[in-house]
């Protein structure tokens, strides 16, 4: 089970690569572009094993996103708003048994009574800087 602290700045997947006798995790440029991280600061990093990770998938190079236009405006703040209704996919379950979904920029949405693989429609009830809490307004139709 994964506990999501309020101080969580970013959540993304990346392979670990060996380079000149050290190991490197590449941080997606979007994390800096969206101001989740700054290149000139030091951060604590947690490593979680990815479900279904294999040696062959670890050795693959990460896919890079196409470059964004330099004139595009970098969004600030959480990508969700209180009262917003949206569809999410539950990826994992947290320590308290709540479902965890990720939306734009890796932003975490906690959904009680949801399980990995569920795709409920949720209403955002509370928004914090790094995480939002939502309630299910329409259950995953595949569960019926």
UniProtKB/TrEMBL annotation:
Domain of life (superkingdom): Archaea
Listed Polar residues bias regions: 51-74
Region (Disordered): 49-87
Annotated ranges, domain TRAM: 79-138
Alphabetical list of Pfam families matching this protein: TRAM (PF01938)
Protein name from the UniProt record: Predicted RNA-binding protein, contains TRAM domain
Originating organism: Natrinema hispanicum
């Amino acid at each position: 089970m994964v506990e999501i602290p309020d101080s969580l700045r970013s959540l993304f997947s990346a392979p670990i690569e060996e380079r000149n006798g050290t190991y490197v995790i590449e941080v997606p440029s979007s994390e800096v572009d969206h101001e989740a991280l700054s290149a000139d600061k030091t951060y604590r990093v947690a490593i979680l094993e990815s479900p279904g990770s294999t040696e062959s998938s670890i050795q693959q190079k990460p896919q890079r996103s196409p470059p964004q236009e330099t004139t595009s405006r970098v969004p600030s703040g959480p990508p969700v708003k209180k009262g917003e209704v949206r569809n999410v996919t539950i990826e994992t379950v947290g320590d308290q048994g709540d479902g965890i979904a990720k939306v734009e920029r890796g932003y975490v949405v906690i959904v009680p009574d949801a399980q990995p693989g569920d795709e409920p429609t949720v209403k955002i009830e509370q928004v914090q800087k790094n995480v939002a809490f939502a309630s299910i307004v329409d259950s995953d139709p595949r569960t019926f």
